[in-house]
Amino acid sequence: MSELFNQFTRRKFLLTASLSASAVLLKGCLGNPPEPGGGSAQTQSAVQPVANISPEQKPEITKVKLGYVPIVEAAPLIIAKEKGFFAKYGMTDVELSKQASWGSARDNVEIGSAGGGIDGGQWQMPMPHLITEGLITKGNQKIPMYVLAQLNTHGNGIAIASKHQGKGISLQLAGAKSLFSQLKSTNTPFTAAQTFPAVNQDFWIRYWLAAGGIDPDADIKLLTVPAAQTVANMKTGTMDAFSTGDPWPYRIVKDKIGFLAALTAEIWKNHPEEYLAMRADWVDKNPKATRALLKGIMEAQQWLDNFENRKEAAEILGGRNYFNLPAEILAGPFQGNYDMGEGRTINDKSMAPYYWKDGKGSVSYPYKSHDLWFITESVRWNFLPKDYIANNGAKAKELINKVNREDIWKEAAKEAGIATADIPTNTSRGVEEFFDGIKFDPEKPEAYLKSLKIKKVSV
């Protein structure tokens, strides 16, 4: 058991709930809880006619319960239901269940839909791997899960409390190091929060800080705060940083609570974001239904990547049953238009969220090399033991091969008639490069760790 998962028990997650907070947010990996009146189960609208499904493709079951958090990463699930893409492939009874937090999603997938929970849904990485290993479950129970698709890229960023405007906090932190040092020396350290440890939004803020020469474990105070506290706590002015997802950052900037220092699209262009993952026992029992779900999601992802559809997408997601906010708050970021605060704007479609294809190829396909990066970052911060990446990541790759079912994605893509050119032939996307010039070669994870100046593991 790693140091992290001994430290962050369920009770300790709750202890931070009363903390007051203002804001840096890492735009995207965790959103806010359901608004009052928002239902768990959504009703299907604009249903497409069911496709002429051959007997060998007809799903074994038409019912499934998927969890989601109300941020743009959930869009493929919501659009697949509301536009009838799930029903088109025979999944006529898909229930989408809004989760108040990632901890709730974890708890609900532990018990499964038969116990009143969920069968799977939207996840930060590497939560499916950690749940499979029993590292974040009750009693360390191992609950095998399968990663089936990537849901999106981008849709995330880092924001700073308004009190730090004009102090040089931006993508490059060289000009702000003295501020962090000064706050630390006066026993009032820069205080940032994320909503679940050792997953996407924790990694984004850690990478950004460390690239600027700031140790997230020694130079600042990094807390876990439940999502229910996000917007309210940001207004109090007692925190310097926070992490949440579109569409909430736009609201925070417009309310003059904070400003965005950077988009994660600037930190790592075309980076992997959140994923569809299911309980392995559900998939093993329902292989045809699994492929039907994937085909519906693939069609939704392609629909979302037609920018002419994004106005409608914003209206659907903004509805009372889902995000419960004005559609215009979603519409700008969906087009790559970001008000960053401090008088800075970004108008660049390549910085928008993508769901089917981005500048490096497939978004939907779950590259195993990306799983390896998330696990390597876990080792970097001592969330997982170093042996996971020893011998070129042999132990990590064994886990990835068990959890990542890219083979099922390919089967579904072929059934859906996806063009051969859009079906990757390699489980690695190759070498990745970050804004600070650091490169991650999935063939050499230990070399990547050695290249990083700030880390908690010695290599």
From TrEMBL:
**Family to which the UniProt record says this protein belongs:** Belongs to the CmpA/NrtA family.
**GO BP:** monoatomic ion transport
Task: Indicate where this protein is primarily found.
Answer: membrane
Gene3D superfamilies, per this entry? Periplasmic binding protein-like II
GO cellular component terms, A-Z: plasma membrane
**Pfam families from the xrefs?**
NMT1_2
Instruction: State the compartments where it is located.
Output: Cell inner membrane
Q: What is the lineage of its organism?
A: Bacteria, Bacillati, Cyanobacteriota, Cyanophyceae, Nostocales
Which of UniProt's keywords are assigned here? Cell inner membrane, Cell membrane, Ion transport, Membrane, Signal, Transport
Q: What is this protein called?
A: Bicarbonate transport system substrate-binding protein
Q: Which domain of life is it from?
A: Bacteria
Q: Which SUPFAM superfamilies match?
A: Periplasmic binding protein-like II
